[in-house]
Amino acid sequence: MLTSDHDPTTVPSTPAETSKLVQSLGLFSSTAIVIGSMIGSGIYIVDADIARGTNSPALYLGAWIITAVMTLIGALSYGELAAMMPRAGGQYVYLRESLGPLWGFLFGWTLFLVIQTGTIAAVCVAFGKFLGVFFPSVSTTHWLWHIAHVPAWRVGPMVLGNMEIGVSTANLAGIIVVIFLAIANIFGVRLGALIQNIFTSAKALALAALILLAFTVGVNATAWQANFGVGWTHFWNNAGWSALHPVQVGVGGPIAWVNLLVILAVVQVGSLFSADAWNNITFTAGEVKNPRRNLPLSLILGTGFVLAIYFLVSLAYLLVLPLHGDPHGATALARGVQYAAEDRVATAVLGQVFPSAGAGLMAAAILISTFGCANGMTLAGARVYYAMSHDGLFFKSVGKLHPRYKTPVAGLLVQAAWTVLLCVSGSYSQLLDYIIFAELVFYILTIAGLFVLRAKRPDAPRPYKALGYPVLPVLYIVMAVWICIVLLRYKPQYTWPGLALVLLGIPVYLLWSRASSARNSNSTPGRTSETSC
Question: Is-above-0.85 flag for pTM?
Fold first, then answer.
């Protein structure tokens, strides 16, 4: 249930937030941040890997249904936390208040080190790659300054290295986007929100056009027969309980044959990654108007819209291309969804509909999509480091706002600097492999924190209560834990490095908190700490 932000029983944000951060984001802008942060380049490419893994039209779409169910439950659960604690930092604050400051720090640490910055780096370099469709000189192989090649080496289940360090024309384009968006977001949250609104609207229209074309002029008789058949008999191929699916364990490991419950968990690496970043709006809670109403609404509306679009886009692919294909096929139809050139399924679909202009149209759509995604994540991420700084767990300067624009300047610049370093190092692509497991761990902990806070603070104001509590949150935790177990067993290269990055934050937290305590003990007696909640 949603109540007014003027409910006399509600508790306002901290004095430091209400006096400094400017509440400028309305419901449309908040929803645009959810949508814009979720839609990047993933939906255009991950379907190929999901199709190869499931090898079944029914399981292929089933993977997206599982992603939709989990993400919607997550949004419904986070809505309660967001309405209860509408503070800058969002998920960091929820973990801190429910499980303790260590867990909040580990989330913020991983967000800065990998999750936020690695994703921004990836989508900005993807922007550069697709810019090369219009300007061929922009390429990952066109080096302006090639520093070194780091060869691959194996550590247990992981293969590390195999990176090109330096500045190519493609990652230079990405670096320019990173710096531009960091600077643009310094000039007030309204400007960042305006950019987000424009590009989110454009990318939504682009995806809607793709769906419309695929459902009308793009329907292909060969694809329909292959994917659905008479009476949808082909649709259920390889989807039975007794059907087994091959999964390579680790890198270069043996092939294991698994059932549908396991294979659907394995392929969530792609679909959950594409639907991730929906929680970013909670980071900006201190700048949302009427946050106790607009935060839950924007989470529900934004995730619902994106997940519906994603399902329709994936279904649209099946209307134009066969799921199964030949990796050596000469045409898009022959290669199918599974082996679309460079996994660019959307490009193959538009190329099938518009043979002469399809690649250009899709490249333009992805440029819009990646730019908007990077802007939303740039805007949101800096607010977490701002909140951490006020708790003495990040650089002190990051906790200061621009005197005129009321934006976390240092947070934006530090985030951009680390992102640029990831772009130059070429490590972001490997870091992305570890994101989903680390994200799932923190989603599980945050939703578990919902139960903790219900017990610890039963009388706290909750303008919105999680729909389906406690059944739906428990269902999310069970599903997420199952996916984590499966990934630990069958895809250790995606899990153990992510877990190690999280655990590496423990000694950093101890050092930082000890230094913060020492600073506080040496402060002027009687001074009220700015970090108090």
Answer: yes
